[in-house]
Amino acid sequence: MRKAVNILVIVIFVLSIVAIVLGHMLYAKRELLKGRTQKLEKAVMDVAKFIEKEPAAVPSEMSGDEFPAKDISPCKPEILEKPETSNFWTKYKRHLETLDVPVLDLETDEYRLMLMNLYQRDPLDNSIRRDPATGFPIMKGEGTMSYVLDDILIAKAREQYDRLNETRLQLKDLRGELATTIKDFNSLKQEHRARLKEIVELKNEIARLNEQIRELNQKIEEIEAEKQRLQDENNQIKADMAKLQETVEERETEIAQLKKKIQEIESLSRRADDRGRLEGLWIPPPGVKGKVILVDSRWNFVVVELSDEFIQESLASGRQDLAGAELLVRRPGDSGEFVTKIMLVSFQPGTKLAAADNLVNWQQRPIQEGDELFR
Q1: Burial class of residue 57 (count of CB atoms within 10 Å of its CB; 0-12, 13-18, 19+)
Q2: Does the pLDDT at position 258 exceed 70?
């Protein structure tokens, strides 16, 4: 009996040592499990801070200033009051842009307690609730760790993941719309460059044409000035012609008067010839008798050169001295304007020169060198 007791004591002692060792090992495992559990709880709470609690509210309407409709009508040289527009924004989910949406907060005592309960407990006596059908403890439902992780955290994470996928799809649509817009913009930009080049060329052409217009206007002004000058000259010529016409009329009047006087003089000359025949005096026959070669207007004295015919006529009549002979003076040419009458006072037979007095009572105009002598 004593031996059995001793053996039992030894076995108990050994078992006690084994129990102490196992207890120590279990304590270490307990601390490990506790640390892991606390770390998991802390990680779950931290992760919950990045999980949106509720989705953003959908806006009631979209502003035309913030979401202008894209003009998809073709570019033509015309003004469209109401061009065709894209309906892209009608399917755009604006609420996905919302920032700072409220997130989950699991750091409350209620959620901490739920994370510590693996089983569902009765709120009255804190006893573990069991499934009536199976008799096993209930591990799901409100108040359990599964409720916090599955029904709240994972469900909200799944909803946020779905919204993320939805956002990605919308980004894809936006990328397609942006790519199309960029292509259209690039195409229009090329056309715009071509139009700008054409505009610059047209502006240069307009500038060149304006310069030509300016030069033509300047030429027109010069032509107008020349025209005005010619018009003034024409007016002056007309005025001069009018004056000349008046002068011609005056000259014609004078010629008529002179012709009348010449007729009177010829009549007087005929009467003198008749009188000379009656008195036996010599009257030279009509015709040119010489010309004036020197005029002294101060003393009314002239020197004349007599023609050979006149001298021969005088000698043939038996008259050796020509002093006292009277001759008429006229301008040479077709008009033959009467000038005056002279009387010879001396004659040099060898020179055909004679001196004569100007009978001023007969003078119609100043006597000049070259005037003709006639009867």
Answers
A1: exposed
A2: no
